[in-house]
Design goal:
CATH class of the largest domain: Alpha Beta
CATH topology of the largest domain: Rossmann fold
Radius of gyration: 20 Å
Number of helices: 10
Strand content: 5-15%
Helix content: 55-70%
Number of strands: 5
Strand order of the largest sheet: 2-1-3-4-5
Structural class: alpha/beta
CATH superfamily of the largest domain: Glucose-6-phosphate isomerase like protein, domain 1
Shape: globular
Order of helices and strands: HHEHEHEHHEHEHHH
Distance between the termini: 62 Å
CATH architecture of the largest domain: 3-Layer(aba) Sandwich
């Protein structure tokens, strides 16, 4: 167990030192987006993509997930020129993901590749390429999307958190979109305390 966790943790740690200007370009592209951020992929990349879209939405960046297979069967009709589409493929050669590119090119939206394939078709065709690297997958066969999936998820979280700061997204904003569950209750308590403190200060000022 420990060796698998260590493999993934070390990969994320090494990658933190590899963040380059392409990541800054991706943040700027998403921050200036006048439309929506759409994340697409298949398989494990698709599952990570769903989480990425959910994290973006809950932290102030409107986003949704579009399955790459469904995109070529009509779902791409939701994409507009002002949108930004993030395409996830570890190899950068996933056929289902590449099939979406001609449609996006005709629509005229911005595209961001998220891949480990620096020289892949996806990295070459997209406007911006976020390329990560890792030594091996964590499983004993070096086949299951483990390390690669964790890296992709970490990049998605980093993008969401960075954009959240740039947008001035605060606790009140978070509570607006996430009033449910224990997290929502905790935020409600914190915000109520803040309001009470403000009321007390106003009373003293009068």
């Amino acid at each position: 167990m420990r060796s698998f966790i260590t493999t993934e943790a070390e990969a994320v740690g090494r990658f933190a030192e590899q963040v380059d200007e392409e990541f800054a370009a991706a943040v700027e592209c998403m921050h200036s987006c006048k439309g929506k951020v759409i994340v697409t992929g298949v398989g494990k990349s698709g599952i990570v993509g769903r989480k990425m879209a959910a994290s973006l939405s809950s932290t102030g960046t409107p986003a949704y997930f579009m399955h790459a297979c469904e995109a070529v069967h009509g779902d791409s009709g939701t994409v507009e020129p002002d949108d930004v589409v993030i395409l996830i493929s570890n190899s950068g050669e996933t056929r289902e993901v590449l099939n979406v590119l001609p449609i996006l090119e005709q629509i005229g939206c911005k595209t961001i590749a998220l891949t480990s394939g620096r020289d892949s078709t996806l990295a070459r065709v997209c406007d911006i390429a976020l390329v990560y690297s890792y030594e091996r997958e964590a499983d004993h066969l070096n086949l299951a999307p483990t390390t690669s999936a964790i890296l992709t998820m970490a990049i998605g979280d980093a993008l969401a958190c960075t954009l959240s700061i740039l947008k001035g997204f605060d606790q009140s904003s978070f509570h607006l979109y996430h009033p449910g569950g224990s997290l929502g209750e905790r935020l409600s308590t914190m915000l109520d305390r803040k309001d009470s403190a403000v009321d007390e200060e106003s009373g003293h000022a009068e």
